[in-house]
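the two lines:
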Amino acid sequence: MSLQYALTVTLNGLTLAALYFIVASGFSLIFGLMRTVNMAHGSLYLIGAYVGFAVFDPLYMNDATYSYAWYIAILAGIAAAAIVGIVMQVAFLGWMQGQELRQALVTIGISIIVADQLLANFGGSPFQFFAPDILFGPMEIPFVGRYSTFRVFQIGVAVAVGVGLWLLLNKTRLGIMVRAGVDDRQMLAACGINVPLIAVFVFGLGAALAGFGGVIGATAQPTQLGIDVKFLLTSLVVVIVGGMGSIPGTAIGAILIGVTEQWGQALLPTYSVILTFVIMVAVLAVRPQGIMGRPD
Amino acid sequence: MPMLSRLQWAISLAVLALLLALPFLLPSFWTGNIMGRAIVYGIVAMSLTFLASYGGFISLAQTMIAGIAGYTVAVLAPTAIPLGNHWLPYWALIPLAVAAATFAGAVVGLIAVRTREIYLLMITLALAVGFSLFAQSNIDWFNGYEGIRNILGPDIFGYPFRNLYVFYYSSLLVATALYFLVLYVVKTPFGLVLQGIRDNPRRVSAIGFNVGVHRVASFALAGFIAGWGGVLITFYNIGITPGSIGIWATVNVLVMAVIGGLGHPIGAFIGALVYTLFDTFAATIYDRDRFNTLIGLVFLVIVLVSPDGLLGLFRRLTGWRTGRSVATETMEEKT
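prediction for all of em together
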């Protein structure tokens, strides 16, 4: 095996991890504050991708607007997922706060309906965004050679999302409230903070990250129905491994899973899925709360 | 403590008698495709209900465990296409498959032994989806995406298993036996300790019971139940595919269990029947292609209106057996 091959596989793993991080950080954020396991997170990813594409396609076909079609699609995908997420929190999940299993069941019900409605409205054929010219095509990377510019950009986006979340949670008044809510929701409410409003904001933010991931993911590779399951599963495994509600943990989990998945596919194609679960089971056996998670 | 009160025995026997007579009262389509199907899927749903009701675990791995039993039969079956011609007869395969499922159940229990509630839900879902993805990518054993076909099942008294009545009555026999097994087990010391652990694991372990062993054993028993369901489902579908044990199959079993009610094992069969009726008659109610939207809405309404399912709704409407149901308690714990 050449060095170039090894580096390419690792880089593939890291770019995949970047996408996993963007999606799973939203899942982790929602879980961290509200203890809500959002089983519809994969559906929010798909909503971002599909709505983004519905906006993108006509703009891209038009010569006057094609240069900024992709950026509009990003905004549309984020907005669509965030709106659906906020509606979910306000209409269903907010008033059953604390009933974790019931919330999980509600989000499962929503994901069944969303998947079916997406199929009804957009059909089942795969689609892919075209990245804007500046990110399109290959670039030269030392020791690796030609590599997709967009996939490198994906890593940059993930780092930006990570830093942005860190700043938001650690350097803003809102972040202080969110972190206080994670530690003790009732005390925070007793301090006169409108906790349900913060919950709506956090749910919207987490959903927006899923929608954002949807457009990014559908630019990197073709997307179709069924991929919601993959991203729900990945989000679950990443946060189980990394630790619930921890952003650094989510990053570690995403890198571990992404790189393992790519190396697994390169070395043992049929058994690569198992590797992911071996990691999950090993982490659970040693640290049930995840690598960066705090014990209950 | 008796297993059932006299009234409950009377109702159970009356229902059983009705189920035995049904094939003579209903058209054959109803016997096989509605009642038979509801019974075999109900068995898998009941393994979930058993864990939820008496252990407080919502495990989404039950479909996967049924799938392990199904694949065990399918991989080794004498009639299998494309890899058939094995020497083991069906009557030896069925116990082997159920043993494999029991073992798989214990393994899932071991993996999840230190986690509870929502974490358990996530971990078992991840395991379930992982297994179906594995079955899908493995060609050598599981024949990948296409799965294994032509699993006809054994002949019983000279009649093929495909015979409507053979299928219906064997499924009914297995389901009835497992149903009473669950009702019996929960009154044994093991079952009582299990319910104690559900309510308060720390106190039970303070008395000196090994909480972990009881949890793993309950998962093994649930695996045993799901295994029977998996074998019968594989015969019903004349084969098995990764799709039939994937996330949507997993969710469907959860939907059945929740619609019926997680408070009592009978809820699983009620839910399975309701689900099957919707699945079959969605075309006349709404739109065949949008079945999932319909069942999703029904599921959502049930979870929103009556977290303990139709059974809980029935109890509240009739005042039958007052007191809080187990499922509501599990769901509303830690508010």
